[in-house]
């Protein structure tokens, strides 16, 4: 019978420090802690660097348990350490880096010890891993406020559940929770969908429609996939958020609304700002609180508990006993490109297909077949062979499967694969060539 491992860590040490920029008008300093610090030319950045070659949102630095993580935000002229252009790197100790040709210094200080919530659930969310409990810590602080929240994460990580959990823990929990999928809105109808319209305002408007902002009065409006919103609608959305009122298409008067704003995206909004496809002022209006949902591959220890949680929600509380340890071990070796959504689907299908009392083969639902070799397990067969040969073959199989999943998910975009893996692009290209995968773009 499968069993879960209790996650015992109650605190995390975040290794941050001080960010220093020597401007012409004096030295500017900023504390680097567990909340991300954005550096760039835009006046709304936490650290404003108004130098030639620096992008609007150039880079981000945040304290983590592994060191201060410096990440380039899709800048035009790059973030550099010495002669090396970096996408993402951990700074340990005191060091210097450059935004284009402007130098900044980072001075490491004593780690900040942060208490993590002991809970493994927050509303409909489950997670006992450090990334999830750190997310719960942020949500506990941000949910009771009226601040806007920007949720970022890959497809399938559960961004809508995060939004629902924020609503459920807020003072507006008894009000409506209105969801607007910006990715499903036709560009020509974006304004009418967001702000409402009067009858006859355009071809096909056979009746009037109330804005979802007004429908969310007293509650929360959730703007999902906000990164898909057309550029020409963004200033109108910014004005609506600032003035707390909307004017329906074809209407002559404004309608006030009272709703909490939560937005989510799978897109790299910071990179979109630098590319000119997303407004920086709208970004900062929405990102008063930022919540990043880690992909499942970065919190594999949550899988046993997630399976139990999903089965309980399906009304099959005791069915977890039918998930074998061998099945769990296969699931823990999988990369989960579809994240928690893929796991939920696999568990649901396995439960529906299994006969009463039969084992739940969750791994088979994502194409992970059990190893068979004349009655001997894969571990038995591996033990017969030379250790280094077996290890080399297993590592090669893992590398190919790992990078093939990334190639498929990113259409061979080396920069995106580099960002997701934390590897330099030259190393990514080496692995792709080594395993005969698709020729990388750009």
How does the SSE layout of this entry go?
Layout: E1 11-14, E2 17-23, E3 26-32, E4 37-40, E5 47-48, E6 59-64, E7 67-72, E8 79-81, E9 84-86, E10 88-91, E11 95-99, E12 102-108, E13 112-115, E14 121-122, E15 125-126, H1 130-142, E16 149-152, H2 159-168, E17 177-181, H3 190-195, H4 212-215, E18 220-224, H5 234-243, E19 245-246, E20 255-256, E21 260-265, H6 269-275, H7 280-286, E22 289-292, H8 303-313, H9 325-332, H10 339-353, H11 378-384, H12 387-410, H13 414-421, H14 425-434
State which percent range the strand residues make up.
15-25%
Number of helices: 14
Q: Residue share in helices? A: 25-40%
Largest sheet: 6 strands, antiparallel
Count of distinct strands? 22
> Strands of the biggest beta sheet: in what spatial order?
3-2-12-11-8-9
Overview of this protein structure:
- It is a single chain.
- The longest helix is centred in the last third of the chain and has 24 residues, at 387-410.
- The chain is 32% helix and 21% strand.
- The relative contact order is 0.10.
- The protein is globular, with a radius of gyration of 24 Å.
- Helix 8 (303-313) crosses helix 10.
- The chain is an alpha+beta fold and 442 residues long.
- The protein has a 6-stranded antiparallel beta sheet, with no helix packed on it. Strands 5-4-6-7-10 form a 5-stranded mixed beta sheet, with no helix packed on it. Strands 17-18-21-16-22 form a 5-stranded parallel beta sheet.
- It has helices at residues 130-142, 159-168, 190-195, 212-215, 234-243, 269-275, 280-286, 303-313, 325-332, 339-353, 378-384, 387-410, 414-421, 425-434; strands spanning 11-14, 17-23, 26-32, 37-40, 47-48, 59-64, 67-72, 79-81, 84-86, 88-91, 95-99, 102-108, 112-115, 121-122, 125-126, 149-152, 177-181, 220-224, 245-246, 255-256, 260-265, 289-292.
- Mean pLDDT is 87; it is low at 1-9 and 372-385.
- Strand 11 and strand 12 (102-108) form a beta hairpin.
């Amino acid at each position: 019978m499968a069993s879960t491992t209790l996650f015992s860590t109650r605190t995390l040490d975040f290794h941050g420090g001080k960010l220093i920029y020597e401007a012409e008008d004096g030295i500017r300093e900023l504390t680097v802690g567990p909340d991300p610090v954005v550096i760039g030319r835009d006046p709304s950045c936490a650290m404003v660097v108004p130098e030639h070659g620096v992008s609007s949102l150039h880079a981000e630095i945040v304290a983590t348990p592994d060191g201060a993580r410096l990440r380039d935000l899709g800048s035009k002229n790059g973030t550099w350490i010495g002669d090396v252009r970096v996408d993402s790197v951990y700074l340990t100790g005191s060091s210097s880096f450059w935004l284009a040709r402007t130098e900044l210094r980072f001075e490491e200080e004593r780690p900040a010890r942060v208490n993590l919530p002991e809970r493994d659930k927050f509303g409909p969310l489950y997670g006992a891993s450090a990334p999830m409990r750190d997310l719960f810590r942020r949500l506990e602080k941000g949910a009771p406020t009226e601040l806007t929240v920007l949720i970022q994460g890959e497809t399938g990580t559960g961004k809508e559940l995060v939004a629902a959990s924020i609503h459920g823990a807020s003072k507006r929990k008894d009000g409506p929770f209105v969801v607007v999928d910006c990715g499903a809105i036709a560009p020509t109808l974006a304004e009418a969908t967001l702000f409402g319209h009067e009858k006859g305002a355009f071809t096909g408007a056979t009746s009037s429609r109330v804005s979802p902002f007004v429908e969310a009065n007293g509650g929360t409006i959730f703007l999902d996939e906000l990164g898909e919103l057309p550029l020409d609608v963004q200033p109108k959305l910014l004005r609506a958020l600032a003035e707390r009122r909307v004017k329906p298409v074809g209407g002559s008067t404004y309608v006030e609304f009272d709703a909490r704003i939560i937005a989510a995206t799978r897109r790299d909004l910071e990179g979109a700002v630098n590319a000119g496809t997303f407004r920086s002022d709208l970004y900062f209006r929405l990102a008063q609180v930022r919540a990043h949902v880690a992909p499942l591959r970065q919190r594999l220890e949550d899988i046993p508990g997630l399976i139990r949680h999903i089965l309980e929600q399906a009304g099959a509380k005791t069915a977890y006993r039918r998930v074998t340890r061998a099945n769990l071990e296969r699931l823990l070796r999988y990369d989960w490109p579809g994240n928690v959504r893929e796991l939920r689907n696999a568990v649901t299908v396995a439960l529906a297909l299994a006969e009463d009392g039969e084992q739940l083969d969750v791994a088979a639902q994502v194409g992970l077949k059990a190893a068979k070799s004349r009655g001997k397990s894969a571990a038995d067969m591996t033990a017969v062979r030379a250790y280094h040969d077996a290890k080399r073959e297993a590592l090669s199989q893992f590398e190919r499967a790992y990078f093939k999943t990334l190639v498929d998910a990113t259409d061979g975009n080396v920069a995106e694969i580099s960002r997701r893996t934390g590897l330099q692009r030259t190393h990514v290209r080496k692995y792709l060539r080594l395993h005969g995968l698709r020729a990388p773009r750009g």
